Every structure is written in structure tokens, then in C-alpha cells.
Amino acid sequence: MIKAILVDDEKHCRETLSMQLERYCPDVTLLTECSSAAEGLQAINQYNPDVVFLDVEMPGMNGFDMLKCLPAIPFALIFTTGYDTYAINAIRFSALDYLLKPIDRNDLINAVAKVQARPAPATNQQLDILMQKLEGRLTGLQKIALPTLEGFELVPLDTIIRCESDGSYTYFFVKGGRKITVSRTLKEVEELLEGHSFLRVHHSHIINLNEVQRYVRGEGGYVILSDTSSVNVSRSRKDALLKVFG
């Protein structure tokens, strides 16, 4: 059985998620429900849960602030949040899991299944990336946590040469000739990399603009990257690429 704690300041959200866990996730035992981050901290110390469902937006102390108060995080984390693009992007960037309110039962079942398959707690590196992303202080050698079939891999952004879509997965081609298979769609990857030196130049390709060696004109044309690979540029994205390079 998976021991769980629920932290959310909204009563109806707690009641709904509690009902969903009881109905759709029989392997989860909900130990207690907390209406504030302060209560959540006490419950974590008291119950030693396997997973914490943590609301992001709470008055006084939000979910992220609560995590900063813990000396260690020996449990899996599943954030719950309304549609906050900035918070969701930061959570994805650190390869942590989240549920969007109102919570869909299939999303909940899948999130719990991930905890069952990989019960490892959030790592310090993931949480550090999360906090840095939230506080807008990702500087220097920036890293992204990429969710893989085995868990996740921390990759410096400046080692990523390009990304290529394969249905619900994306291939990351990084320096050194490695290819990392990531369980994210290219659209999700595009949102993750927004604000960094990446551009989607085709419905199947995102490139690192710093790795472009040459552009060859054509209907859309194509670019040659630092690893000698070539990537087609679609007509609809050609102007965006040319604008970047003046």
C-alpha cells in the first residue's frame, strides 16, 4: 500500500481528491488531509508518507515554500494546481509530476502508477532546479531534468543540439553523439524550452540556435547543425528562423 498525505487549503478540492483516490486508486491509503502548509509539515513529520499530494497555491505559505522548510524530502511528490503556466513549466522542467485541477481520474491513476513503478523520492537536484526556475535565477550552466523510461536524467541545456518528435516521445540529441528518449511530446518540450535558445523550425524538430552552423535556402530551406545533422525548416517557420539571425 502507498501511504499518502493530501495538502490543500480548499475543502472541496480535498474532498474530491479523497473520493477519487478511494474510488480509483485502491492501493493508496490516505493517512490525513491538511488544510494548510503548516498542517502539512506536521503531518509529514508524524506519518512519514510515501507520497504527498501538494497544492501549489495556498495562502500564507504556498506548496513551494512548504518544501523549503523540510530538511529532506523522503517521499514522492505530486503537485496539484490550477492552470498556472509559470508553475507548471517549472514543475515540468524539474521532471516532477503534477495534476491539473479539476483533476481528471485517468491523470490521477497514471500519476499513482508512476509512484508505484518508481517510488523514489524527489531528488535534491530536481528540487533545486524547480526552485531556481521559479525564482528566475537559472544562470550559468543551466540544466533540465528529462523524464526517461528509467527515471530522469539531468542534462545541461547547452549540450542539447536538437529535439525530434516521435509521437508521444521526443528524442534529445546531445553532444557526444548520445540520443535520449524522453516521455514528453514535442509540444511539451517546446513549452519547456521557451525562453532559452531553442526554436521549433518544423512540426517534428526543435533546434538549439547556438548549434546552427549553416542555413541553406529553399522553399523552407534546411539548417546544418554542429553534429553535421541537417534539419528541414518548414515554410511557416522560415521567417522566424531568419529573424533570429537578422
From TrEMBL:
PANTHER family: STAGE 0 SPORULATION PROTEIN A HOMOLOG, TRANSCRIPTIONAL REGULATOR-RELATED. It comes from Nibrella saemangeumensis. It comes from the Bacteria. This is LytTR family DNA-binding domain-containing protein. The keyword DNA-binding applies. InterPro entries: CheY-like_superfamily, LytR-like, LytTR_DNA-bd_dom, Sig_transdc_resp-reg_receiver. One of its GO terms (molecular function) is DNA binding. SUPFAM superfamilies: CheY-like. Transmembrane segments: none annotated. The modification 4-aspartylphosphate is found at D55.
